[in-house]
Amino acid sequence: MSASTPASASAGVAPQREQWTGQAGFILSAIGSAVGLGNIWRFPGVAYENGGGAFLIPYLIALITAGIPILFLDYAIGHRFRGSAPTAFRRLGGQRNGRWLEGLGWFQVTIAFVIGLYYTVVIAWSLSFFVFSFDLRWGDDAAGFLINDYLQLGDPGLSMQFVPGVLIPLVIVWIAAIVVLGAGIARGIQRANFIFLPLLVVAFLILVVRALFLPGAADGLNALFTPQWEALADPNVWIAAYSQIFFSLSIAFGIMITYSSYRKRRSNLTAPGLVVAFSNSSFEILAGIGVFATLGFFAFEQGIAVSELNDITGVLLSFVTFPAIVSEMPGGPLFGALFFGSLVVAGFTSLLSVLQVVSAAFQEKFNLSPRRSAATIGVVSGVLSVLLFSTTTGLIALDTIDHWVNNIGIVSSAILTVVFVLWMLRKGKELRFHLNSVSTFRVGRSWLFFVGLLAPVVLGYMLIQRIVVLVFEGYEGYPVSYLLAVGWGAVLLLVIGAVVMPLLKWKRPVDDFDVWPEYTEEVVR
């Protein structure tokens, strides 16, 4: 029976699968997923610290040789096997290998589940600072306001001392996410992206244009884009480029597998994939221009060089450096509102895609409606999110879990996908055939080389390097016991999800599925 056959969900038969209304809906939603908080607060600092303008060379090479190939791999798996990550991997494995390969899908779902818990709280912070922008509530000490007044940061550990200023906006974000997810793919996620993505682009363009006319803006841009050609000889610069591409495209943890599964059978995959990839990179460069033009102004006001500034990436850039800049610039409240409003919108569209990975998997495994799945996942996730991240230890927990899940979990997921799907099951030719059967931009044999050999080699090096550093050097000076419990504990949770979830019985038919178009070795050219 085809997965698209209408039937009664209550009878234990798969209902008709939801779909995007068209190509534009899919592209906007995929861009909305890719363009997130990391584009704004991670790329500018990474580029500046790794060769400035010269960094764009390894960045573009990484995009072409790893980012786009793995993006196409996710598209091919999701679209051909018409399901969330566990469903798609189970069908890809077939009767013989489906059950254990399903575990890889649940590994990705668990990654998305954990990311959703802490990603939401960053959106809540951004929502708070959006409100704070109008009266510059952080005053003259942005760092003190963030750490002491707003987050009320404590020592590493598990605290039950809740911070109302974080808890209230966090609950609001979870309610909004549950409502959108419950509305389904077309009426919920797609409609939200049709509204929020253009709003994000317009707001950020206004912010960038304003930043370009600030005193010292040119110095900031020169600092960012002046090429440091000697950096290209440093392997760590290339690793940084691959890391940035990999983490910013929403690949290898179920998002693009899930999103592509909602496309119609006869849908172009590769051309929209190129649009998504280059749109994401274009926004990163735009973010770099806006952020460093603003940092140039900040350095000018203090009478120092841009190179002497601290806190130019991550949480401190957004919630310490930028508030301090807003306090010094003309029209600061409006500039602050635009910046933090952009963070809220970019974060929310990415959050929807992360949560949909989990919601779709539970819909298909346990025969739930989108509304019931969204409510169940949302309530459970919301409670855990509040308990872990709205307390005085929330920032430390977020920093630790994020580092382990991204650097160990997602990278491991990408490597395992290549090893299982392309090396062990030898599905590369079939997936290439599928891409070329439905797409206008055809992928050649070089795609198999990039996705099957180059990408896992680079990612394998990244993974080993990161594990060695975390084991022998720790992280941010946090106690070893804390890192074992929270950091490595998060990785253990991913493994438990991969092992336990495939053991549970499917409430919908999953194995009786017709793959289209039919593939044989003879049709491959």
Automatic annotation (TrEMBL):
InterPro entries: Na/ntran_symport, SNS_sf. The keyword Transport applies. It is a multi-pass membrane protein. This is Sodium-dependent transporter. It is found in: Membrane. It comes from Microbacterium marmarense. Its main location: membrane. NCBIfam families: Na_transp (NF037979). It holds the Pfam family SNF. The chain crosses the membrane at residues 20-41, 53-73, 106-132, 162-183, 195-217, 237-262, 274-300, 337-362, 374-398, 404-425, 446-468, 480-504. Keywords: Membrane, Transmembrane, Transmembrane helix, Transport. It comes from the Bacteria. SUPFAM superfamilies: SNF-like (SSF161070). The keyword Transmembrane applies.
